[in-house]
Specification:
Elements (H helix, E strand, L loop, with lengths): L4 E7 L5 H15 L5 E7 L5 E3 L12 H7 L1 E7 L5 E5 L10 E3 L2 E4 L4 H4 L2 H8 L9 H8 L1 H10 L7 E5 H16 L5 E5 L9 E3 L2 H11 L5 E6 L4 E10 L4 E9 L8 H5 L14 E2 L6 H17 L4 E10 L5 E7 L7 H4 L6 H20 L12 H9 L8
Parallel strand pairs: 1-2, 1-7
Antiparallel strand pairs: 2-3, 3-4, 4-5, 5-6, 8-11, 9-10, 9-11, 12-13, 12-15, 13-14, 15-16
Helix pairs in contact: 1-12
């Protein structure tokens, strides 16, 4: 067995928990015959970190209570040599907790703390290489409002909209409704920091708007209301690489039952079985003109670089089917199923894609640790300490 351990991290306290499990199982299946040793890091719905071989099998997730009992609590730490490890925090009567050095982590989270940069920041605190975008791109990509503000500043077209917090809605509901109605119906209401179309609603009139807002606040404390693009054509494109060197995939056209794709459209096939984004109905390549394809691919590369994204990302666009106007909708820094189905068209299968993500993670990490990371000066010298102690006797009266 290889001594290079790849930790696949997934689950999390998020409405997209199950989708994350599906993506992680796809990663594990793709790498099971690679030269890496795979270690699961499952974050339960209550936030517990767990590891263990039972977590590698998808069928075990049908009984979460039993699975969690069979798994072992764990955490990141460092061994005696200073290397980052994943260590079990409990052990049996006659054995020590197992500890595994970490070659790299593949985050397979969707939404909330796993995709918004906080887990990526934890990896950086422990000096662990990790696949995908860093803290900046991850947090920016999760905040739809700030992402679109950045795009506006760089002349990338986005749909007109407003955003507000739940407290503002409670205090200024009529004012917010009037601002929203100035955009004109139909309107799209969506959470600011969720993906997978969870909590997204459409309103054709005022009472539907109010109901949609109240419903969507169940998922997030900040919402955005946008003018619906109609007739709507959705087109996505994936980017693989770094801000300096990247390649684009073919474009896809997701197909849903309504103009706005639902969670079920994205993640469940006709029989209702969940297989991640790979189960969604889609047209690959998208049946759009070469000119429109090239425009979307160019915008995708520009936004990927602008956001300082890394690894693989999927960029989603809204197109007015009549005028062919293109609007940036969002960037998914950990896309469902890692958008492997788009890279298959470029003869990059799931395993090749995962291996490339690991290589990029290691390369990016080596570049970072190759820089000066500490400044050799002794601020805790005897003179400095005396100076600080002297502050205690300072007369602050004035």
């Amino acid at each position: 067995m290889s001594d290079k351990n790849i930790v696949v991290a997934f689950g999390g306290v998020s409405p997209e928990h199950e989708v994350s499990v599906l993506s992680a199982m796809q990663v594990i299946a793709a790498l099971e015959d690679s030269h890496y040793n795979l270690i699961p890091l499952y974050v339960s719905k209550s936030g517990r970190w767990l590891t263990g071989k039972p977590l590698l099998e998808l069928e075990n997730y049908q009984d979460l209570d039993t699975l969690i009992k069979e798994a072992s609590p764990c955490t990141f730490t460092h061994n005696k040599l200073g290397k980052p490890v994943l260590q079990e925090t409990e052990s049996g009567w006659f054995q020590s907790p197992e500890s595994s050095t970490i070659h790299a982590v593949i985050p397979a989270f969707h939404g909330s703390e796993g995709e918004n940069g906080s887990f990526q920041g934890t990896c950086e605190m422990y000096n662990i290489p990790y696949a995908g975008s860093g803290v900046f791109a991850s947090s920016l990509g999760m905040d739809k409002v700030k992402a679109k503000e950045l795009c506006r500043a760089h002349n990338i077209p986005v749909v007109d909209g407003i955003d507000f917090y739940e407290q503002e809605w409670a205090e200024k509901q009529e004012e917010i409704i009037e601002r929203a109605e100035q955009l004109d119906y139909p309107l799209i209401i969506k959470p600011v920091t969720l993906g997978s179309s969870i909590g997204v609603n459409r309103a054709e009139k005022r009472d539907e708007l109010i109901k949609a807002v109240e419903t969507t606040f169940r998922f997030d404390n900040s919402l955005m209301v946008e003018k619906a693009v109609t007739p709507l054509l959705e087109v996505n494109c994936s980017i693989l690489g770094t801000p300096q060197e990247m390649q684009h995939s073919v474009c896809e056209r997701p197909l849903g039952q309504d103009e706005t794709l639902s969670f079920e459209d994205k993640y469940q096939n006709e029989e209702g079985t969940q297989k991640g984004m790979a189960s969604a109905d889609r047209q690959i390549p998208a049946d759009i003109s070469n000119e429109l394809t090239q425009k979307i691919q160019s915008l995708s590369r520009k936004i990927f670089s602008l956001f300082r994204a890394s690894g693989v990302a999927r960029l989603d666009f809204l197109i007015n089917e009549n005028t062919k106007e293109v609007y940036f909708n969002e960037i998914n820094t950990i896309p469902g199923s890692f958008s492997f189905y788009l890279w298959e068209e470029s003869e990059i299968d799931m395993q090749d894609l995962m291996l490339e993500l690991i290589d990029i993670a290691i390369e990016q990490h080596q570049r970072k640790i190759g820089r000066i990371r500490s400044y050799e000066t002794n601020l805790l010298s005897e003179k400095a300490v005396k100076g600080i102690k002297g502050l205690k006797g300072t007369d602050n009266k004035s």
